[in-house]
């Protein structure tokens, strides 16, 4: 039974490393775009626009005012 709980304790570390790896791979793919100022501004604008869109959508769906 102790082995079971030791195995269950490993899952949060696995989840954190999995999520960090996904973000790292995503950042590595976007890194070449940050070297050119025009594409960097467009990328930052796209990310900010996406965040604002998600924020406003969730605010409207949840009825938060």
Account of the 3D structure:
- It contains 2 helices and no strands.
- The protein has 2 domains: 1-34; 35-65.
- The chain is an all-alpha fold and 65 residues long.
- It has helices at 2-30, 37-62.
- The relative contact order is 0.06.
- It is flat and about 55 Å long.
Features:
65 residues; mainly alpha; 2 helices; 85% helix
Distance between the termini: 49 Å
Q: Whole-number average pLDDT?
A: 92
Strand content: under 5%
Give the total of beta strands: 0
Radius of gyration: 19 Å
Low-confidence stretches: none
Basic shape = flat
> What structural category characterises the helix and strand content?
mainly alpha
Domains (count): 2
Oligomer: single chain
Please give the largest β-sheet: none
The total count of helices amounts to 2
Helix content: over 70%
What order do the helices and strands follow? Answer: HH
List the topology elements.
Layout (H helix, E strand, L loop, with lengths): L1 H29 L6 H26 L3
Write a brief caption for the model.
The protein is mainly α. The protein has two helices and no strands.
């Amino acid at each position: 039974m102790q082995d079971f709980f030791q195995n269950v304790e490993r899952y949060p570390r696995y989840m954190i490393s999995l999520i960090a790896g996904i973000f790292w791979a995503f950042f590595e793919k976007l890194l070449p775009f940050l070297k050119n100022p025009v594409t960097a501004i467009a990328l930052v604008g796209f990310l900010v626009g996406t965040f604002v869109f998600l924020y406003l959508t969730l605010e409207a769906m949840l009825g938060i005012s």
